[in-house]
Each structure stands twice: as C-alpha cells, then as structure tokens.
C-alpha cells in the first residue's frame, strides 16, 4: 500500500510540474482547437505538432540545407587555399617589415 501512495505522490508532483510550466493549458488549447475543427485533419498528430510549434523542417528542406552546407564548406576551403596562395605571393613581392626600408 505504501508503494501505491508513493506512486500517487509522484504523479501528483508531476501533474503540478506540468501545470506550473503551462503544459496542461497548451495541450488543452490544442486539443480544443482540434475538437472544434470542422474539417478534421487527416493527420491529427501533425495538427498537434503544428499548433504546439513543434513542427520541424521538412525532410526535403533538411536535405537542401545539408547540401548547401557541404557546398559552402567546399567554397570556404577553396577561398582559404586562394587566400594562402595570395599571401605567399604578397610576401614574395613585398619587402619584409623591419629591414630598414623606409615606409
């Protein structure tokens, strides 16, 4: 019986935690919105995600972003290499600082 009470106490603490954080209100509002929808969505879980603000990027968007990141990394590598080459050329044509040459 003590185990049952401990379990109930944990549930009550968790319920208060959810209530204090506003989770219960948010869930209630979204469920009410779903209930009041005249045209019920084909995917109610997606409806909940969207209305809770948890809708993540689409798979196609994610893939496009990954591809863009890869292209930008390659471009960055090319620019870093070009920068290195130009610095070497510049060092070759400019006298070293501190040689006593007037500026």
UniProtKB/TrEMBL annotation:
UniProt GO MF annotations: transcription coactivator activity
Where does it reside?
Answer: Nucleus
Where are the annotated coiled coils located?
62-89
Which keywords label this protein? Coiled coil, Nucleus
The family database entries (CDD domains) matched by this protein are listed as: ZIP_MycBP-like (cd21937)
A single Gene Ontology CC annotation of this entry is: nucleus
Does the keyword section mention Protease? no
Family under the similarity heading: Belongs to the AMY1 family.
Q: What is this protein called?
A: MYC binding protein
Annotated source species: Scleropages formosus
Lineage of producing organism: Eukaryota, Metazoa, Chordata, Craniata, Vertebrata
